Amino acid sequence: MALSLLSAPHVLVVDGDARARADTAALLVAEGARATQAAGCDEALDLLRLSRFDAVVLDYSLPGSGAVVLLVRFRSLGNGRDVPAVVVGALAGPAREKARAHVAHLSLTAYLDKPVTGHALAVALLPLIARL
Questions:
Q1: Closest C-alpha to 34, from 15, 66, 57
Q2: pTM recorded for the entire structure
Q3: Which of 9, 14, 63, 86 could form a disulfide with 58 if both were Cys (CB 3.0 to 4.6 A apart)?
Q4: Ramachandran region, residue 74 (left: φ > 0; alpha: ψ -120 to 50; beta: rest)
């Protein structure tokens, strides 16, 4: 399933782990998206202030303020209010359920378990992007 709806969506990938970030970006590109990478919250906010993104994929366990706080801050910016997000995490047990509960309260947001596949990202992102 390719991500492109009419044109390649521009997706911001935020992950503190360089390899995971690059792998996620590569999966998105293989699905037809354009991907920009950020290593953490501050870099992501800088990019979000400067550019318009069609979606954001972020690691739940981001160093610093974390994915949920970053997403709330991003959504408070004018250009980030309606941008869909997929939060990914490598959690288990109660921590996983807590993460899913946090994400469930945010509109236009989905949660996926790591490791993710390109297909899983496309399946999660397409309906969120299409709702806009």
A1: 57
A2: 0.89
A3: 14
A4: alpha
